[in-house]
Write a structure and sequence with these properties.
The protein is of the alpha/beta class and 383 residues long. The protein is built from eleven helices and nine strands. A nine-stranded mixed sheet has the order 1-2-3-5-4-6-7-8-9, with helices on both faces. Helix 4 packs parallel to helix 10 (316-329).
Length: 383
Amino acid sequence: MGKLFIYVFFMTLALNAQEDMLCQGSYWTEDQANLKMKDFATQWNDLPSWEKRANILRTGIIKGMKLDKMPQVKGNFNPIIRDKKVMDGYSVENIAIESFPGFYITGNLYRPNDPDKKNAAILSPHGHLSDKRLKEDVQTRCAVLARMGAIVFAYDMVGYAESTQVTHKMPIALLLQTWNSKRVLEYLLSRPDVDPERIGMTGGSGGGTQTFVLAAIDNRIKVAAPTVQVSAHFFGGCVCESGMPIHKSANHQTNNVEIAALCAPRPLLLISNGSDWTRNTPRIEYPYIQKVYALYNAEHKVENVHFPMEKHDYGPSKRAAAYMFFAYRLKLDKGKVTITNGVQEDFVTILPQDDLKVFTKTHPRPENAIIGDQAIMDYLGIL
């Protein structure tokens, strides 16, 4: 009983220490964030000093989300791919891959109808909305990019749509989502029809967080377009974005601007708008990231498209900006789409949500599936 008491006591201390390091929601005001960015800028003045800071930040992210505690899993994706649907210039398949034994990443694979021997590939995570992967805007974005020549993997946030082995609010949601994205990346890289030098990633809102976090710690993401999410003062309002101490530790303090800047010198597009926490991007977030890119003589590789009269979404104008960015950076074929006052999307067929599900009554989830937040955490031995 004495040993159990001591164990519980020290576990409580550890959890309380982690809570003290969390930077969540609007952790700073806009005024405070402006001053913080100026303070961050004093901590480096050339490429060696920035890269020293960058290494500290990457270590803080990886250790903060306990990514270094995950089991070593290589290959063994055991893909389940079914129900191919051939559309106008692209096809859609329902797919699941094993993230680790007993846990499945569910999604859809969009591919060009006339693929090259080696194609660009794009990871497509999404934000916080029930069944978001199956919604019209995600279908549209993935279909257009596929028609232009990319293999696009749209996949569920943990706890959403078909990812019901866990709840979204589980304590390690940030870790699990980042790990899932890493596994999607590695699956795409394992495909013989994918060019490893042309890998992109984009998502809106919480999908934007997933984009800049993975791009920060994994340079196999060659091009990134986080949308309506990079902010100096807002750290993400969900446990899957700021529920683990990636922004602060005994050795570092940062924010999502610096995490996004860790993409340098790879091409980066920030898409922002006037009605959410990205309203200051042209004045605060983007100039800081430009200075980081200048250290690599790569100012031309970072862009900001700002929509001051628009809202928090990944709507048509924002998608058009992303299409053109990826077309240039991933060498996609703009000739496959009509560009008139934006990129025309009217060729896309919006499928019923049930047609996009990989697991059904006819094709149930495999029997080895681990169910429940605690069961997953017990299996991984984390928290």
